[in-house]
Write a structure and sequence with these properties.
By secondary structure, this protein is α+β, with helices and mostly antiparallel strands. It contains 13 helices and 15 strands. An 8-stranded mixed barrel has the order 1-2-3-12-10-9-4-13.
């Protein structure tokens, strides 16, 4: 567990003191030492987001940020958008100070106006802590996150500590799954350590993924997809008005009871379609659930699944679904879920994917699962994470702007790092 002393003498030691200011004045730039750059990277952590260890670290991080506030906090950075390695601008000096204050850059970085490899590494670290692709370039999203005031970050931490306390209070199983909706991230946890970590696609702002505590009970291989009533009305009818061949092209069939109808039999400029059942044929390259569906009993009728649209996992902001959760690297996920279920080795899982056969695998021991909402948390190594309050559950309104949802290239660090 991270002690108060270790925290205050570790991360907070990166805040400027008279000695470090003097050093900075005589050392405008670090020497190009790649070992120093590597120390700023966000290292992979085995501590679960939902754990007693994360709770303790987050409680202590509140003190860390209160200390920053007592020292004057940080000033907004301006004129930095688009800056990257090789850029030269007076704005880089202020950027260095901003990164130093939150421990993303060593105080010895100095006051040079040059955007060197050390500033780039500091920006990458900041981006990784805020769920932004770690490009090292000052994007608009990065600037937005950097300019959230320290008092708002403190409030975020306080709100999320309360959430963590309530979630941890009842105790956690030896094996469980946690899906953090604002982070669009899924972790499998065993023996108090993260076993696998998966980028996820979660509910849109107007079709939110619910908070729930349940158990994973079954895995459906090569499933049919029955179109939910809300999607028929909001999406499918407008789509058919514009593209009459959409259902046929996507192998979606229409049923009135047990009788199959042709799309030409339906009046798409009325609500007639809402009276019918729509079912998409199995097929991982086309079916909206991909190769697999993971069943979780709950009142909202949501579940987890694969997706043929793998490109979404490369976006910073993966709020794309109608409430269910899409899971990256789903084979690794279900291999972990089924590890104690006889007959479901990785070889058998891969063979079932390849066969296209409709098979259900009932877990011999259902695995607890928690869909949670955490916009700030920390780990015992002193690393603090922040995410956009996408559903405005923190109650801070416009105090924290929700960043742009412009897709970016896939970033392995964002997927793998907590």
């Amino acid at each position: 567990m991270l002690s108060r002393r270790a925290l205050l003498t570790g991360s907070l030691a990166l805040i400027l003191t008279p000695a470090t200011v003097a050093m900075a004045q005589t050392q405008a730039e670090w020497s190009q030492n790649y070992e120093a750059v590597s120390r700023t990277r966000v290292q992979r952590t085995s501590t679960p987001m939902l754990s007693a260890e994360s709770l303790a670290a987050t409680e202590q991080m509140i003190e860390y940020y209160r200390n920053i506030a007592a020292r004057g906090g940080w000033q907004p950075v301006q004129g930095v958008q688009g800056l990257r390695v090789g850029s030269k601008s007076p704005a880089v000096i202020a950027l260095r100070q901003r990164l130093i204050i939150t421990g993303d850059l060593d105080p010895a970085a100095g006051e040079s106006p040059i955007f060197d490899s050390y500033v780039e590494a500091g920006v990458r670290r900041f981006q990784a802590r805020h769920g932004i692709s770690s490009t090292g370039t000052m994007t608009a999203t990065t600037v937005t996150a950097m300019n959230v005031p320290v008092d708002i970050r403190i409030r975020q931490l306080e709100i999320n500590v309360a959430r963590l306390r309530s979630l941890v209070a009842g105790g956690l199983s030896n094996r469980y799954v946690v899906a953090n909706i604002p982070a669009a991230l899924v972790e499998t946890v065993e023996g108090g350590m993260v076993h696998t970590r998966h980028a996820a696609g979660v509910g849109k702002i107007d079709r939110q993924s619910p908070l729930l505590n349940s158990k994973v009970v079954e895995v459906n291989f090569n499933p049919f997809w029955t179109v939910p009533a809300s999607i028929i009305k909001k999406d499918l009818i407008p789509k058919m008005q514009k593209e009459p061949n959409y259902l046929t092209d996507n192998k979606i069939r229409i049923f009135n009871g047990n009788q199959e109808l042709s799309p030409s039999q339906v009046n798409w400029f009325s609500d007639e379609a809402t009276r019918y059942r729509f079912r998409q044929d199995p097929g991982g390259e086309l079916n909206s659930m991909g190769f697999v569906r993971i069943n979780i009993p709950n009142k909202d009728g949501v579940y987890m699944h694969d997706t043929p649209s793998k490109g979404i996992f490369g976006d910073d902001f993966r709020f794309v679904s109608s409430g269910c959760i899409r899971v990256q690297n789903v084979r690794d996920y279900i291999e972990w879920l089924l590890k104690d279920t006889p007959g479901w080795s990785r070889e058998q899982i891969d063979a079932t994917f390849k066969s296209g056969e409709r098979i259900d695998a009932r877990l011999s021991q259902p695995v607890p699962i928690h869909w949670i909402y955490m916009t700030a948390w920390a780990t015992p190594d002193g690393l603090v994470q922040f995410r956009d309050d996408i559903y405005n559950k923190d109650g801070l309104g416009a105090s924290i702007p929700v960043a742009s949802r412009t897709p970016t290239e896939p970033d392995e660090e964002m997927f793998l790092q907590n």
